[in-house]
Fold each of these.
Amino acid sequence: MKTALIIEDNPDNMVLITRLLEKAGYLTLQAMTGMDGFDMARQKKPDFVILDIQLPDMDGIEVLHKIRDSEIGNSIKVIAMTSYAMSGDREKLLAAGCDGYIEKPIDPALVISQIKSFLGGRE
Amino acid sequence: MLSSTKHAVSGFSLPPSGCDIRLPDPCGIMRNLSTKTKLICLVAFMSTVLVAIGGLGLSGMKSARARLETVYKDRLVCVIQLSTIGELLSDTRREMLLSVTHGRSSFSNPPIQNPVTDHEHRAASIEANLVEIDKTWREYTATYLTPEEKLLASSFVSSYTNLVEKGIKPGIALMKDNDFAGLEAHLRHIVVPLDSKCHEAIHALIRLQDTVARTELARNASDYRVRLTISIIGTALAVLVGIVISALTIRSVTGTTNRLRESERRFRTLFEQAAVGVAEIDPVSGRFLHVNKRYCDIVGFSLDEMLKTDFQSITHPDDLEADLSNMKLLRAGEINEFSMEKRYIRNDGGIVWVSLTVYPTWLWGESPSRHIAIVEDITERRKAEDALRSSEEKFFKAFHATPDAIVISRASDGLLLEVNEMFYQQTGYSRDEALGRTTVELNLWADLRDRERYVTMVREYGKIREMEASFRTKSGEIREGLVSSECVVLDNEPCFLTIIRDVTERKKTDAELQKYRLHLEDLVNERTEKLEAANEKLKELDRLKSMFIASMSHELRTPLNSIIGFTGMTLQGLSGELNDEQKDNLSRTYQAAKHLLSLITDVIDISKIEAGRIESYPEAIPLDEVIDEAIGTVRPQLREKGVGLVVEVPAGVQLNTDRKRLLQCLLNFLSNAVKYTESGTITVAARETDGQVTMSVSDTGIGIAEKDQPKVFEAFERFETHLRVKAGGAGLGLYLTKKIARDILRGEVMFQSKEGEGSTFTLRVPKDLQQKINFVETQDKTGGNG
């Protein structure tokens, strides 16, 4: 049973993602800010992180950098989730050390298989 | 009668004149001759005296010259004589000395000759010398001696006598005695000292000769000069007087006899051949007494005709009165002569203008005076004058009527000689004020540099054409003028004819026009600036609008994401089973939400592109991969609709462009093709040409009506088709595709379509976005067709 840390400031999206993951059999942790998310990632050591890029306190990419620079390093996967993506976001995120990239709005029919492919693809 | 006598008397007192036509009285000639004779006698006497003086001078000069020669000769002789005496004295002494020498030698040695004979011979020689000296001295003293010379001569005589008596004579005695020792002593002690004294005296005399000669010569030479001068002057005067006498004699003889005839002849010649008409007129009747040829020619009558008529008959009636009154005055002696210009009526009826001069004359002392009339034909002159007058009149009119100011000034000092009416009107200076002054004095030049320019140009080129200059009028107003000037010669004086055109009004008008023109330009510029500012503002507003839409759209998306997410999840049955109606309801909600999302997304994109806030992120992409991804999105729908798919894409083509945007364009084409195709095939083809990649999506769908084709790529255009409601969409897809293709991918979009047969949409982009930047410039193709 894998544990996912969801860092997302929008409660609706948080609920949606949480439910989809739980329905697919994952354990979930929730954080509403970048800082909380980072702290939780260090304490709870989840298997992967679903990271919203637009956060109230800091940019998602900054959180990603913090995680990669911390003792966690590359030990956990990070899948970025952006609202309407700008051209070039994908490249920027992958270059910053993201393992996957999902565009909002998420398609409930596809999202779990997308996540699985990112997780599996790395192993 | 009385006046005639008076004239005659005054005539006699005049010196004789050869060309005088008045002939003098014989009595006058007599008196004249007697005066002349006296004069001749006086002159003859004077000349005789002068000739005598000349002769005297000449002879005196001759004698003076002779005496001069004599003095010179005499003194030369004296010198010779005195020198001879000196020589003889020396000889004597030498003889005595030789005797001593010989005597002594013969005494000590055997004598070669007979000494006695020798001595005697010497003694005789000495005596002969003495005789010679005496003779010469007498000759010398016979000449003229000056007192000083006499004194010296007596001194010589005494010393000589001493020498002879005390020296020579005892010496001769001793010689005869053969007492040589005694002789030697005698010689040394007595003869030699005495002899020396004699010599000194002689030399003094010789020296004196020189002085005497000089004095004599000088005296005689001045005498000679005086006489020579007298002689020359006398001779010259004599010759002169002689000439005068002969001249006077010749004249007095020939002049008196020939004068009358000569005078008459000259008068005739003058009268007949004069270039003017001359006539002798009877002062009372006015008849012509004598008329010369020229007179006849002028009035056109023959000589005979003239002598039968009088001047009144041929005078022009208009001039007769003046002529007659003049004649009357002349007869009365109130005037001595008169001149007038009058007209004669010629024989042929024509009119001749003459200048007439009339004066009275007395021939041979006759008492009734006659009038001499001299006429000159001045018809031509009058004509010329008339012509000139009329020309002057014309010029005068033109001069004053011209609209330009005209000034005639003298070149030498710049004084104004003439100005016209316009000059007064333009400058305010009347003719009287201007004439005789210069333009500088009038203070006419507003800028004296203009005057300098004027002077320089007129000197250099002799003329000026339309030089601009400012002038000050009398009232101080400044006016602008165009100056033209020309050098002309008037009355033999170089002058400038200067024309000044007043262009003040014209300039003012020009300036105003210029002002209006500039003002208009300013106005246009101002408006343009305002418009540009407004345009800027509009652009700014447009940008703000786009930004507003972009951010609004973003805010709209977030709730929409939740709708789509939750409905999607529920539709999947993840929250429990749904019945068919529930499923249908949720499905409609889901589709509507998706549609709304795509609309919002398109609006955001368009707004961003229009606001210029969209950037491109080129990356290396394999062409087939991008196309596969696009096809993958529509594949489920194709399968559902049963529409076939053909893909003709070459492998291995690499692009460097914005992946997301390229995908967006392809998806748009594909989704349109799927939407409007009910059956048949959709073909996706791609090829690489010349650094560009062309991708096309063809379908066998409903196609686009001809009338709708020009609006295919415009915003919010959705055409009336039976598939309209079913296909959905806001009509932004192709508009956005075109914008993306042009503004981001720097490519172009095209399409071909036939209603009922299908459409082909084509996208052409540069293979390398970063290299093919100029592609935008060929965009017209799309715009025109699309």
Amino acid sequence: MENRELTVLQLIVILVSTNIGVGMLAFPRFVALKAETASISATVFGSMIALIGIMSIAYLGKVYDNKTFVGYSREILGEKLGAFFIIIIILFFIIITGLELRQFGEVIIGSLLPKTPIYVPMMMIAFICMLASLHSVNVFAYIHLFYIAFTVAPIIFILLVATTEIDWIYIQPLLGNETTWDGFMTGGFVVTKVLLNFFVISMVIPFMRQPNKAVLASFVGWIIVTILYTLAMFFTLAVFGSTELENLMWPILVLGRLVRIPAEVFQRLDALLLVAWMFAVFTTLYSTFYFSVRASTELFLGFRQRIVAALLFGIILAISLLPKDVYEMYEVIKVVSSIGLFLIIGYPLFLLFIRKVKGSDPINESS
Amino acid sequence: MFRRKRQWKTVNYSSINGKGDKPKRPVHPTLSKNIKDIQSVIGDDHDYNEREIRIVGNRKVVVLYFGSLVNKDSINETILKPMIYIRSQSMDVELKDKELKRFLFEEVIYHTEGQIVTHIDDILHGVLRGKCAVIVDGLSEAILFETKEVDKRGIEQPQGEQVIRGPRDGFIEHLQTNISLLRNRLPIEEFRVKPLEIGEVTKSTVVICYIDHIANEKLVEEVEKRLQHIHIDRVLDTGYIEQLIEDNPRSPFPQIQYTERPDKAVGNLVEGRVVILIEGTPLTLICPATFNQFFQTSEDYNERALMSSLVRMIRLLALGSSLLFPSLYVAVLSFHPELIPAEFAVAVTSGRGGVPFPVVVEVLIMEVAMEILREATVRMPQQVGGAISIVGVLVIGQAAVEAGFVSPVTVVIIALSTIGSFATPAYNVAIAFRMLRFPILFLSGMFGLFGLVVALLLIFNHMLSLRSFGVPYLSPFSPVDWQSLRDSFIRFPLRWLSKRPEELHSYNTIRVDPKVKRKPKEPLLPKEDDRNGKS
């Protein structure tokens, strides 16, 4: 691989910052809809499911330490079948990026720029993603590392400020009052679906200085993500209660409205927190965008990265404009992410299984 | 892999000085022919001098030099005098050609720097650079002596980088003096001074300084390679070199630092960076440069750690406010007035009562006026400068507000952002930020806080992708380096800055031996006690 400069810390940060994004604003509502007071345990459960995928991807990256997922998919499944799955996964990420972009646009229009047509902010963010996706993997890591302070700190800040508003009744009992097993599972899967972007690391691990530490780094990253998501779930549930939570489109944003700072310098802080959140969204969109661009470039050798990026810019923007409104958007997201759940968690396991069956040892083969 | 390789075009510039690939002319044994050759090239010049004398064996010798470039005393004393003197001592000694050369060079002339050349072109080359040529009849070689002396100013404190605490000397236009300022501070054998000549017409001497065993070899090689690839007719300042060797010429941010202070240059050499000096300018280049360096001054290390850390944070704040204040003002006032306390919002709006434009236009007008004012005062002589600033203060501060042209709060905001940009120690970064204010202003005028974030994302992403000689521009922030972070927006005590910046990949990284403990404090005893204790 070009130059192995990525550190363990950078991989952790990529994983964390990729997963803190659009989904984080909305997920408590969808979990609470299904799991009610059991939402916190459901979040942990959903995150555990994601861990299976993360670990298998990290393990594959460790074993094939100089190949991206495009490379080892083709090695394990053969050229044609490999290419088929790769294209499906790229398509999934293109669609997911488009939908995330739309979600972002809805939030911006809803809370910052009510009179602006929705495609304008979406186009601007997509354009920035396109420009940024022309860079090398190192710059990809630098960008994530740089913005992590802007993203994690405000989220923790909002959550901690909300401590005073907690009502412990809302989160009891931990395993749900009359929550069905089915509701608990579906609630958990919502979290898994939000976390599916972890797959991006499969494109990055071969650029690590020590790919053998990929598994460890991914695990640490997963722990941080789980803690943040659980905290977000905990605070929104404990402050609003599951019944009210079901009515809030973006609960974390509402949580931001509770924040007041001393000296009354700012009347309200939610717009400023939205600024911080925009950085978070950018990093998430950038991750999936970059993943799609790099994977397509690697799959279709001969295509130049900037042409692919420009093409994807158009396609993603078009996809993001397809849903009629925010409700239809969430319906589409529901369908797409359910497919993604099987695809993204199942595919690495499938690869590992085939590899086991074939009994190939890539380390000896490649040497 | 995805970074476009820089393509260097090789253009044949030899036509500029008209020499082309003509073969070199050797020195002819007949003196008059050589003189004729030389005269045909430079003979008509006003400051060209020839002095013909006769030495032992009644041989003719011609000494040539440019009067404007040499120290005539040293030619008189150490070149002409011994040659004539030796003739008066031993009149009729006949020497063979070979012996004569050895005799002259080794026994007669005692000037320090001499070299023997065999071509007319080498003589011209030397004489044009302040050397003095001695051509002897019958010899097919000439002797060149270094006699260059040009007027130079004294060493003064650099105007652009004044300090309250720190050395007062600064570089001047004379290269040798500048090197001596460095060498004086670095009396070690590892200090390297590599000369190069750049500029087809100006033939400027460029010198690469670094410390062996500290500076990374690859960095030195890279600097040298980029310098050697320069093909340009003139190099009048290090600014030319900077623009020709920087990584991204289209970026608004400077990727190479310049300084006039020898102590700063030495500090950077010791950290493992490379310093480039040029004959004829007091400004030296330091490469590679990261963004971190541009809000630091050499004084930060001279003053105590706690205070310099606070000062650095203030500088960063000033830099940030120079970039963001006007656009934040526009965004909040025209898009999100709910962010600021209601009373203040009312006060601002009522202050804008008679202003006919939207906030963004008002701010833009003031910004442009401010930039014009700044530009007008920079180059004015002090007497006129005072008048301009009075006009500026009256027109912009007072009259514009009274005329209902702008609101008083806008004036405050603009003033804050302008002062902020002047608080940045590096002028080139301050100006980059001042100019970037305008696109941010446009975006936030159109999209409020969202536009502001978009602009910030664009700027940060660009900075994160920049590299200066392979060093990421925003290191040590991203990629993070915990050691170098100790010397970023805060400065740890010198004892804790135990390693050289990691991003430079310098050898021999230890700066402070952490094992050596600070000497324990001993109480200062009163005199009587001390005496009693001893006796």
